[in-house]
């Protein structure tokens, strides 16, 4: 019998690989690539890597990348963006550097999409200096490339550099979009750069960018941290779509600006709208109620607890954290010895 060496059905092989990796582990699953090597082609591997990355199964994506080369299937320019994203999410910078070398060796380093993925990888892996060096060496850039560096600087808490790159992006003629302004607004919020934040808001209006949930929440956060909570409230009411993060940012914004009553009113409205509070919500609410305690307004503080009890919300143990030499230490207030 003659067996045709046509590519294997993608759905069949993906299901087979999924079952094998879940039940037998990665090492045993590598045998599947050897057994079916004659039927596995580049398109199949690229589709699997992209699918696993989109499903946030990043270890599986990297596994496929390593195995495809072992059976002689070489990657192309479509392979690298997805696998580099997974490498970044796994925080495997050494593997990322090996892929970078492979990109250069295969001659894909002029590709803007591959380079953008590498800039993103380096920044997420806290090697923003390498990301910036690669960015500066790129022959071509697109708005996504600029976004990768801006968000990379924000991720590494280099907020002034993020704003500086935004200015250079405009001078270069690249058009900032929603993703761009979210990153820059975050930098403005951390720096308390109100004038720059207002400039970004004007840019959003004049260029008719969408006031989506991400842009709106970033604006609220910026205005709140810059002490202009009235403007934060205006943005909140202009937003058509809100999520739990939007509500949390406004509650915390009122609380940090000493407007406990307004914070608790927003909290009550949030519950009425059917949003389920999370840890960040509680933090904002208790900051607001602490304002009542400080003013000895015990009746109002009691009302907060009563509202939360009626909604079936229980106070979680207090928690604080500090960062020492890049290590975060968490301290919890225990109610009794059984919590230890």
UniProtKB/TrEMBL annotation:
The keyword Repeat applies. PPR repeats lie at residues 41-75, 142-176, 243-277. InterPro entries: E_motif, PPR_At4g14850-like_plant, PPR_rpt, TPR-like_helical_dom_sf. One of its GO terms (biological process) is RNA modification. It holds the Pfam family PPR. Coiled coil: none annotated. It comes from the Eukaryota. GO terms for molecular function: RNA binding. Keywords: Repeat. PANTHER family: DYW DOMAIN-CONTAINING PROTEIN, PENTATRICOPEPTIDE REPEAT-CONTAINING PROTEIN. This is Pentatricopeptide repeat. It comes from Dillenia turbinata.
């Amino acid at each position: 019998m003659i067996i045709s060496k046509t590519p294997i059905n993608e759905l069949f092989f993906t299901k087979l690989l999924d079952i094998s990796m879940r039940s037998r582990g990665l090492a045993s699953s590598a045998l599947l690539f050897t057994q079916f090597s004659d039927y596995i082609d580049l398109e199949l591997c690229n589709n699997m890597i992209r699918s696993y990355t989109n499903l946030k199964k990043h270890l599986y994506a990297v596994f496929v990348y390593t195995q495809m080369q072992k059976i002689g299937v070489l990657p192309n320019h479509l392979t690298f963006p997805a696998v580099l994203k997974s490498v970044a999410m796994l925080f495997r910078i050494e593997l990322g550097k090996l892929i970078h070398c492979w990109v250069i060796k295969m001659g894909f380093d002029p590709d803007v999409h591959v380079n953008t993925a590498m800039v993103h990888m380096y920044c997420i892996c806290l090697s923003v200096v390498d990301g910036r060096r690669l960015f500066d060496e790129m022959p071509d850039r697109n708005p996504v490339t600029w976004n990768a560096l801006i968000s990379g600087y924000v991720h590494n808490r280099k907020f002034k550099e993020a704003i500086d790159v935004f200015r250079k992006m405009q001078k270069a003629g690249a058009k900032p979009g929603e993703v761009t302004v979210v990153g820059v607004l975050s930098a403005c919020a951390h720096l308390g750069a109100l004038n720059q934040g207002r400039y970004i808001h004007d840019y959003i209006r004049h260029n008719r960018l969408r006031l989506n949930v991400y842009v709106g929440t970033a604006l609220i956060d910026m205005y709140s941290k810059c002490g202009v909570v009235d403007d934060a409230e205006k943005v909140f009411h202009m937003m058509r779509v809100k999520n739990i993060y939007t509500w949390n940012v406004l509650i915390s914004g009122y609380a940090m600006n000493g407007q406990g009553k307004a914070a608790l009113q927003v909290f009550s409205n949030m519950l009425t709208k059917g949003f389920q509070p999370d840890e960040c919500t509680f933090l904002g609410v208790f900051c607001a109620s602490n304002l009542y305690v400080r003013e000895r307004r015990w009746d109002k503080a009691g009302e907060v607890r009563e509202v939360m009890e009626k909604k079936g919300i229980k106070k979680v143990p207090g928690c604080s954290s500090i960062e020492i030499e890049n290590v975060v230490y968490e301290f919890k207030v225990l109610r009794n010895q059984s919590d230890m």
